[in-house]
């Protein structure tokens, strides 16, 4: 993980999906990371000066005494994808590492470094939505009758 610090998120030419955890005894720190696609979840929370990290939310709920985050539950139940967006989960104080995010803690559980996720894909999708809206308005007002409107969703930038 030492080689990742300061270079996260990884370059676009890295064609891999992973979530990683590292315990560095020499530098006395714990690091967790997730690549830009964020396919594999990695959850973390700090309870009683202990950092708990798992790829399973259910496991964390069995290890530590956590309360339900009712806002997270409402978000999951009412959203189109039936999931939580951002780092929020259905468990209070338990966060999901976002795609492309890197966090490093010292052994006293103080956050030393955090590199936020790369929202390149989101920005592209947002700009695509704006372009679709613009074209749709043009079609509705008769300015672009020959245009074909299609909606695509996906994460492949190739």
Structural features, described:
With 158 residues, this protein is of the alpha+beta class. The chain folds into 2 domains: 19-119, Aminohydrolase, N-terminal nucleophile (Ntn) domain (Glutamine Phosphoribosylpyrophosphate, subunit 1, domain 1); 120-158, no CATH class. The protein has helices spanning 57-63, 70-78, 120-140, and strands at 19-24, 29-34, 43-47, 50-54, 95-96, 102-106, 111-115. Strands 1-2-6-7 form a 4-stranded antiparallel beta sheet, with no helix packed on it. The chain has a 3-stranded antiparallel beta sheet with strand order 4-3-5, with helices on one face.
List key phrases describing it.
158 residues, alpha+beta, Glutamine Phosphoribosylpyrophosphate, subunit 1, domain 1, 2 domains, four-stranded antiparallel sheet, three-stranded antiparallel sheet, 3 helices, 23% helix, 22% strand, globular, disordered C terminus
């Amino acid at each position: 993980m030492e080689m990742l610090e300061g270079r996260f998120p990884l370059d676009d030419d890295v064609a891999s999906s992973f979530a990683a955890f590292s315990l560095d005894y020499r530098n006395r720190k714990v690091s967790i990371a997730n690549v830009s696609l964020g396919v594999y979840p990695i959850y973390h929370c700090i309870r009683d000066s202990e950092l708990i990290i798992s790829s399973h939310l259910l496991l964390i709920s069995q290890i530590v005494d956590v309360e339900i985050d009712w806002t997270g539950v409402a978000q999951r139940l009412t959203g189109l994808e039936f999931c939580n967006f951002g780092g929020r989960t259905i468990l209070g104080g338990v966060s999901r590492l976002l795609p492309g995010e890197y966090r490093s803690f010292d052994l006293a559980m103080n956050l030393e470094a955090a590199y936020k996720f790369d929202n390149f894909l989101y920005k592209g999708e947002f700009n695509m939505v704006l372009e679709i809206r613009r074209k749709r308005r043009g079609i509705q007002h008769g300015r672009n009758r020959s245009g074909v409107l299609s909606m695509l969703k996906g994460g492949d930038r190739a």
